[in-house]
Amino acid sequence: METIQDVKTRVYKFGNKTADGNSKMKNLLGGKGANLAEMGLIGIPVPPGFTITTEVCTEYNKFGQDAVVEMITKEVEDAIENIESIMGSKFGDKENPLLVSVRSGARVSMPGMMDTVLNLGLNDEVVVGLAEKSGNERFAWDSYRRFIQMYGDVVLGMKPESKEDIDPFEEIMEALKHKRQIELDTQFTIQDLKDLCYDFKDAVKKRTGHDFPTNPWDQLWGAVIAVFNSWNSGRAIYYRNMNGYPSEWGTAVNVQAMVYGNMGDNSGTGVCFTRDAGTGENLFNGEYLINAQGEDVVAGTRTPQQITKIGSLRWAELAKVDEAERAALYPSLEELMPEIYKELNDYQQKLENHYKDMQDMEFTMQDGKLWILQTRNGKRTGAAMVKIAIDKLKEGSITEKEALLRIEPNKLDELLHPIFDPKALSTANVIAQGLPASPGAATGQIVFFADEASKFKASILVRIETSPEDLEGMNIAKGILTARGGMTSHAAVVARGMGKCCVSGAGALKINYKNRTLTVDGHEYHEGDWISLNGSTGNIIEGKVATIEPELSGEFAEIMELSDKYATMAVRTNADSPKDAKIARSFGAQGIGLTRTEHMFFEVDRIKAMREMILSDTVKGRKQALDQLLPMQRDDFEGIFEAMAGLPVTVRLLDPPLHEFVPHALAQQKELAEEMHISLEAVKSKIVELEEFNPMLGHRGCRLGITYPEITEMQARAIIEAALNLKARGIEAKPEIMVPLIGTIAEFESQEGIIRATAQKVFEERNDTIEFLVGTMIEIPRAALTANLIAEKADFFSFGTNDLTQMAFGYSRDDAGKFLPIYIEKGILKVDPFEVLDQEGVGQLVQMGTEKGRSVKPNLKVGICGEHGGEPNSVEFCFNTGLNYVSCSPYRVPIARIASAQAAIKKQG
Ligand code: PEP
Ligand code: MG
């Protein structure tokens, strides 16, 4: 049995320009803890505190609360003492109390995922001491009120009972506001705040059956354990799964001396970014609130002010606030507190230079003194990610390799989505304007609740404000619209991290959750109504807006060009039409790695000829039908070869089971019977005859070409004739003909024979030739095991990792959807092996196939064309295995190009 180890350090202290840890210790201290330590070391003023390591979280999950508390009590007591001596106050003391914050901090930042408790250490007696010490009774009771509220929510589970209900504490506050006929929190009297504290505690007792804890140490342990528990909350698990972070990482806990932004008009709190997280523009920006605590800025319940004057002017323009009003009511920090602004500006530059990346910082001003509470590499959109990497490169602060490694390949996906057509935008009906919180174009149907985001195929989540509970719905929705909140609200930060279009703080919206309505200017919109959001301008538009394809230009084009300098493994595309081939080429595809010819047979004008071919019982009948298909196939190939002129094009022979082509609806069966002059019964019986128990392992792949050689003959002819036609027009075609689903060399030989003989015939007929290759897919484990025999004959290999995964795991591709989600939920599999290549198992077959193939043909061309060819981790594996190329869908080509370059850079070291 495993037992707790006794020797290691579990609590790391920081403060007063010293620290036990540093920024390299993210895995152990979490991102926040490591950065707090580092900031302390480089002279940034951080409130003193300590970090309980992520390992303790893992130990907690294994051994439970009692064992872990016992294990770290001594270290935590020492660390609290250290804070006490730096701050000159005492935890739990009635006269000179030290209060602390307790926050989570995983190794990567998970914004809004984990819980925070502020002002911990207060009780009915300490609050009196705090009032005396600060000389500010209002501040003391406001802090206590906030503490009970946060602790109640995070540690004691005081949540709304149903989704239409508001927070139980907010409900009490609303009732008091109503009674007192006031609107704002700031209008509460000191007596009101005292009443709220007592009412809050009563509510806790009523709901939980227990008194609110009064002993500060009990409060501290409760909060620490709640942070550990939040690692396994539904939303944290969802976020981890969404980003592929393993559950073993755990979260650290950061306990820090409180500093106060709510101590009056010389205090405040804010969030800032060293560059624009939406566009990447090199402009310091952020928001703050005077006389407030951190949660007020992020929660979006008050409209925050801008930090810089330029930001404030831009905001006023969008919010339609005139200059006199802006300067009087919403001045920037730069104007209001120039000294503090200057200091903050110095720190933001220092931190960005130190970390060489855009920083997202939190700060608090307590009675005119500035404290930095947190810094981290800021979440950003795909566009900002690319621009910042290129700008930092041009500024000379990072190298080309570093710039490339800064790109998260999957985030490029955002830049490859359609954007609003400027023509359509010029005539769009803009119904309101909010803040451009996260760029992008989104059109969808209104939903008001995050858990209903999947109600429509495309939905826009419309909320007064969002909270971490909404994460899953935010991810599903096409766009997010909130009535409250600034550019640093929860909705904005999370949306930018996801690259999801978001418009926030649209104050003109009146949202009624109970009636499920959105009212703007007297016009009412309902659930299911279509709206569009322009995340780059903040415009909210009625109805749908047309979109156009994005382009690879500007910094995006620059980073892609740079990737070519380092990538050695090529990227091809899977494309079945000239249109797809053109798109892929515009994204930099270096050829086609897979053309699935069956897709061409499904089109309306061809399916009939295809069905006739399948249903005829004689070779003659089949040949007649194939003769009709030949010119169509030839035209298709000509189009594709032309789009890829000069580049290799792998064309795969027919692969899917024939029964996929037969009509299943009675009307279509009748139509077919008439056209073929046969009885309906004959059609039906043929369909029954073609039915298979297990089509994925049935009559498909090269088995079709072996049983019906005339199909292979027709396809080979169409390919060769198309290439010759192009040659006659001066266009170079480079066909690579690929045989699917072979398990034995004899299967390959049979097909290769037909292909080469057909090509020879066409050359003689045309009195001309072209060069072409004949190779095979390796997608049956037996083919990988006998790859040395196959390579004797095949010109190239392409790993079909979709089928290879299916057959290595024994999971039917058609049925895996029924159990894979449960496997992932239960941790039996970490990821879906059809999405991310299983390097441990299936990967061995790829390595073996490549090695065995090259053992007889050292220069054998080897690629991959399963879905994994566009998945960054799998691309890296392919590079390390020595593949010549990966092939993926057109829209993933840029992602694979960056992944290929990164793999090469990582290997060089
Ligand atoms: C494969 O099996 O990986 C493959 C590319 O072929 P298909 O998906 O068409 O079976
Ligand atoms: Mg396959």
General description of the model:
The chain is α/β, with parallel strands linked by helices. 46% of the residues lie in helices and 17% in strands. The chain contains 36 helices and 34 strands. Strands 15-25-24-17-18-19-20-16 form an eight-stranded mixed sheet. Strands 27-28-29-30-31-32-33-34 form an eight-stranded parallel beta barrel, surrounded by six helices. The relative contact order is 0.06. It binds phosphoenolpyruvate and magnesium ion. The site of magnesium ion has 4 residues, from helix 32. Magnesium ion binds next to helix 32.
* Global morphology: elongated
Structural class: alpha/beta
Kindly state the number of beta strands.
34
Distance between the termini: 40 Å
Oligomer: single chain
Which spans of ≥5 residues are poorly predicted at pLDDT below 50?
none
Mean pLDDT: 92
- Over all CA atoms, what is the radius of gyration? 32 Å
* Helix-residue proportion: 40-55%
Structure in a nutshell:
With 909 residues, the protein is an alpha/beta fold. The protein contains 36 helices and 34 strands. The strands form 7 sheets. An 8-stranded mixed sheet has the order 15-25-24-17-18-19-20-16. Strands 27-28-29-30-31-32-33-34 form an 8-stranded parallel barrel, surrounded by 6 helices. A 6-stranded antiparallel sheet has the order 2-1-3-8-6-7, sandwiched between helices.
